[in-house]
Amino acid sequence: MRQCNGSRMLAQAVDFIGVAFRRNDLADDPVVTIEDVRQARPIVWQHASPAPLVRCVAMEQVLNLPEYRRVWIKDYGWTPVGSFKLMGALAWMHRHQEKIGNRPVVAHSSGNFASGLAFAGKRYRKRVIIVMPQSAPRIKFERTRFFGAEIRTYDIETDHQTGARDRMVRDLVDELGAVQASPYDDIDVIAGNGVGGIEIAQQLKQDQRELSHFVCPISGGGLMAGHALAVADVFPSAAIIGIEPTGADDYRRSLLQHKRVRLEKPMSICDGLLSYDVGKHNWPILARLVRTSVAVDDGVTCSAMRWLYEQVGLRTEPSGAIGVAALLSGQVDTAGQGDIVVVISGRNIDEDRFRVWIDQAS
Ligand SMILES: Cc1ncc(COP(=O)(O)O)c(C=O)c1O
Asked: Which domains does the chain show, CATH number per domain?
């Protein structure tokens, strides 16, 4: 188990980058549009209720916001799989159901797309096989099996040298004729995830709220790309801020270098945020809409997990808490007039690991 670094428990020095966007530095135009997200909405809603968007007065106080500004948490812990991942998985499965036919579906996943795809497989009666790190939290194994998927494991510690994960997926495709799904680098997955963004924007509009900041984790970028499309459509002037662990900050580096950067070995307790790079379908959307990137130290994430537990009563996995961590530690410039939405993207964590991490937190 990776541990929080005790000496870095306190909020790290501000590491905030506002990167100017240069149109010419992007590859092709975005392939996914808000129209794709709108089309995914009835598919996702047919199978899953919107995750709640709840006001967080405790965070408004910590951030010292004036009374007219609010903080909202979009809490994907309330979905049947405990994370946002079922939205993209449902949209993908719906779109590919005929092509799949009787063949199995295979994907690699750190564990949350695993249960999302398993959920979708159950709904569409497809066999699902997941290639997952052997060190993934038990709850991610349990949820994936609960919805009927099969699991193969690999060693994530050596994967950057062995390439075992991708090889196992390729072998399953070759041997079983399986259809491969991507956890983030896919237009239907992005569109499906964006449905959560539509839900956020709709609720804020209904309540006649203005949005000034949208804060959300980035790994492969499927969560943020979909949400950014929906949020920017309704609140074009809102700052859309991507959050990553310091040891897996490929998006921040990509923004700086104006091209996708691949990390040799991403390292963090945020097991859902360890992709080597952002997806090629995600990059043009992210680069256009997510112009601010914040990297958060694991110790700061532990502190946020503890704060969420003690102040809000939520038991959150590190990847899910990282947006809250960025806000609480003052790494997001919250100056503005509107509300702030922060995404808690998942809450799948084992009790023993959770205790270790919050006990270490300051
Ligand atoms: C809890 C959680 N949050 C965020 C992410 C990042 O999603 P994406 O790869 O679409 O950026 C993941 C990915 O597995 C996750 O499990």
From this structure: 12-83+187-360 (3.40.50.1100), 85-180 (3.40.50.1100)
* Furthest-apart CA atoms within the chain: distance in Å: 60
The token duo for 329 is 């530690």
Question: What is the atom index within ligand 1 of the atom nearest the CA of 320?
Answer: 1
Take atom 16 of ligand 1 and give the residue whose Cα is closest: 272
What digits encode the pLDDT tens for the residues 158-177? 999 999 999 999 999 999 99
Ligand 1 — pocket residues by CB below 6 A? 83, 110, 112-113, 184, 217-224, 272-273, 275, 317, 319-320, 345-346
CA–centroid distance, residue 271 to ligand 1 (Å): 9
Whether residue 2 contacts residue 269, with contact meaning beta carbons closer than 8 Å, is answered with: yes
Q: Dump pLDDT digits (tens) for 274-298.
A: 999 999 999 999 999 999 999 999 9
Q: What is the DSSP string of 40-60?
A: HHHHHHHH-PPPPEEE-HHHH
Alpha-carbon distance of 221 to 240, in angstroms, equals 13
Distance CA 220, CA 104 (A): 24
Element (H, E) at 295: strand 292-296
| Structural element, H or E, at residue 217 | strand 211-217
Read off the pTM. 0.92
Is residue 126 within 8 Å of residue 201, measured between CB atoms? no
Using CA atoms, how far residue 47 sits from 74, 168, 178, 349, in Å, is 18, 30, 24, 24
**In this predicted structure, what is the pLDDT of residue 31?**
80
Residues with Cβ within 8 Å of 266's Cβ and at least 6 positions away in sequence, in order, are 245, 247, 248, 250, 273, 274, 275, 276
CA of 184, closest atom in ligand 1: 10
Distance from residue 110's CA to the centre of ligand 1 (Å): 9
Considering Cα of 256, then 262, then 265, then 271, what sign does the dihedral take? Answer: positive
Rounded-to-integer distance, Cα 132 and Cα 207, Å: 41
